[in-house]
Write a structure and sequence with these properties.
Blueprint lengths: L5 H14 L14 E5 L2 H9 L2 H6 L3 H7 L2 H17 L3 H9 L3 E5 L8 E6 L3 H21 L7 E5 L2 E6 L2 E6 L2 E5 L2 H12 L9 H9 L6 E5 L1 H4 L3 H12 L1 H16 L3 E8 L2 E8 L31 E8 L2 H6 L1 H4 L2 H14 L9 H7 E10 L16 E8 L3 H21 L2 E7 L2 E7 L20 E5 L2 E5 L2 H13 L10 E6 H10 L2 H11 L3 H16 L3 E8 L4 E8 L3
Antiparallel strand pairs: 1-2, 1-8, 2-3, 3-7, 4-5, 5-6, 6-7, 8-9, 9-10, 10-20, 11-12, 11-18, 12-13, 13-17, 14-15, 15-16, 16-17, 18-19, 19-20
Helix pairs in contact: 2-6, 5-7, 11-12, 19-21, 20-21
């Protein structure tokens, strides 16, 4: 008796299931380096149009302006014509004309990029009627516009091909092929004509099946092995290895791409919203030693819990070991940057506490960082700034308590120097037992360099909370961060090395506080009155609040790079 592994059985089952119905990927020429697929386009369309946020968007006055445009009205007229002539509404038509899958293939390197669209229908008669109707409508539309380019017909391998402008359209049975490149279309027509002879999984589907979660609404595959052969890609990877800033910010991502043969991404519907998952088959196991600054040692957490005080617009938590960078500066930094830092090390030694150097601070600086951008509950000054900015704060972990003890005197000294130039006044506060040191700008002193009073957004401050050092643009936010740090103290860390979240409610509150640009645009673009414009902006703000939050999670595992964008709809 022959025994098969579970993975082999799974692949055989997938092959057998795809062989029962035509696969649009069978019609994609091998020259395509990127492929986008929806195996069930009706399910994808209904997932989007069924959203409450989508339905509510159509009630916005701003949407009405788009809906009433000439282009939109013409598009709806054509859709109504197709529904009437083909005897079905659009969801059913989508099933009939593309129910066995829709795929787009692209080839990089030229402009425009050769592109092929494949619609694999379920009803050949309906597909034939739809193609005839489409070419007729296109020809009439070109005539209406007075264009000299009309639909022209030719033949490829016994199949009729329509050409209008730079677009080519062909039908092979229940398969519709559309391309901007005649050579690519010819290859696709031949593949479509022999489609049933080779029920073998396309490489893109094999890779996606192996890397992505099951049942995506749509998915993407990029043949990165071929992309890396281009001179521009080679130059990019060579340049990034020499660029310190890129190494520091996205070095891990670039290194995983450098070693990957493909990139896959999938869009998913979840009970709470949508998820976009990207996977690269390369991870931290083959990182160069100097790239370990992006990931924690085995057994240690990736990112600490997000801080989400009231009014948060954006929150981020990430791992980046600055101390590791300093220790390995000979490998990570070029001569110019390394020399600059070492010179700064000598200069700062003059103002830092006795015996402490910049290198010491960097090594005591912990690998966990958190950033928060939030709305003000109350502006820090009675005097309003000419332009408002949200508050922002930064929380650093500390390897050694000496980090705060060494940095605090330096910040105080900097505050003293700034007080001579800007008139800053030192203030001290206490919140939940934590001391906060802050600096305020005088409201009765003009600054030539700041005629609009931008400085009145800021009340720079810092505090030490256990093993964390907190810096914030306002005392109000600093207090909130202190409370948040205590709230999440016992929450588990996350395996992802980067986490972030944008809160639609916070963004809407920021927009509500600064509505003037939108009000002005509404008045000028649509010629409405001030009261109506204000109502439109209020409706938009209310709609944005309903969008929930969008989060990002990046996990660089041993063998795989995982990036997920998660849209959590408001409850």
């Amino acid at each position: 008796m022959i025994r098969l592994s579970l993975s082999a059985v799974a692949v055989l089952l997938l092959v057998s299931s795809t062989s029962r119905a035509a696969d649009p990927l069978d019609c994609i020429p091998g020259s395509a380096q990127a492929i986008i697929v929806s195996d069930n386009p009706r399910k994808l369309a209904e997932a989007v149009t069924g959203l409450e946020a989508f339905k509510n968007a159509q009630k916005l006055p701003q949407y009405a302006a788009i809906y009433d445009s000439t282009t939109a009205r013409r598009a709806f007229q054509i859709l109504a014509l197709f529904e009437k002539e083909l005897g079905a509404k659009w969801p059913e038509l989508l099933d009939q004309l593309g129910g066995n899958g829709v795929a787009i293939g692209l080839q990089f390197g030229t402009d425009p990029a050769p592109t092929i669209l494949v619609l694999q229908g379920k009803d050949e008669k309906q597909v034939a009627k739809a193609v005839d109707l489409a070419t007729k409508v296109i020809d009439e539309e070109l005539a209406r516009q007075g264009s000299k380019d009309r639909v022209q017909w030719s033949d490829i391998a016994g199949h009729k091909v329509a050409k209008f402008g730079d677009t080519h359209l062909a039908r092979v049975g229940a398969t519709v092929l559309v391309s901007n490149n005649e050579t690519m279309l010819k290859a696709a027509v031949i593949l479509a004509a022999t489609q049933g002879d080779k029920p073998v999984l396309h490489k893109a589907r094999k890779d996606a099946f192996k890397s992505l979660p099951k049942d995506p609404l749509a998915w993407l595959w990029i043949d990165f092995a071929s992309v890396k052969q281009s001179q521009s890609a080679k130059d990019f990877f060579d340049a990034t290895r020499k660029d310190f800033l890129q190494t520091l910010v996205v070095g891990g991502t670039i290194d995983c791409l450098r070693r990957a043969d493909y990139v896959a991404a999938g869009l998913y519907k979840e009970p709470t919203g949508f998820r976009l998952s990207l996977r690269i088959p390369a991870g931290r196991s083959e990182f160069p030693p100097e790239f370990q600054l992006h990931v924690p040692p085995k057994g240690e957490p990736g990112a600490l819990p997000l801080l989400e005080p009231p009014g948060t617009i954006y929150s981020q938590s990430f791992h980046l070991d600055i101390g590791y960078m300093w220790k390995h500066r000979d490998k990570l930094l070029n001569d110019e940057i390394r020399g600059g830092l070492e010179q700064a090390d000598k200069e700062l030694a003059k103002v830092l506490p006795a015996g402490v150097k910049l290198g010491d601070l960097l090594e005591m600086w912990g690998p966990y960082h958190r950033v928060v951008v939030a709305n003000h509950d109350k502006m820090p000054y009675k005097k309003e700034p000419g332009q408002r900015f949200p508050a922002f704060g930064y929380v650093a972990s500390m390897r050694d308590a000496k980090f705060a003890k060494s940095l605090a005197p330096t910040l105080r000294a900097a505050g003293v120097l700034a007080s001579f130039q800007l008139g800053l006044k030192l203030t001290e506060h206490k919140h939940e037992g934590i001391d906060i040191v802050a600096y305020r700008f005088p409201e009765d002193k003009e600054l030539a360099d700041d005629p609009d009073g931008i400085r009145f957004n800021f009340e720079p401050c810092f505090a030490t909370v256990g093993d964390y050092f907190v810096v914030a643009s306002t005392v109000e936010l600093c207090k909130k961060l202190i409370t948040e740090l205590k709230r999440v103290e016992k929450e588990p860390a996350h395996k992802a090395v980067i986490r972030g979240k944008f809160f639609a409610r916070g963004g809407a509150e920021l927009l509500a506080a600064l509505p003037e640009p939108l009000i002005t645009d509404a008045i000028l673009s649509r010629g409405i009155g001030l009261d109506e414009a204000r109502k439109e902006v209020a409706a938009l703000v209310s709609w944005i609040k309903s969008l929930g939050a969008v989060g990002v999670e990046l996990d660089i595992a041993e063998k795989e790079y995982k990036l997920d964008l998660v849209w959590e709809l408001a409850k």
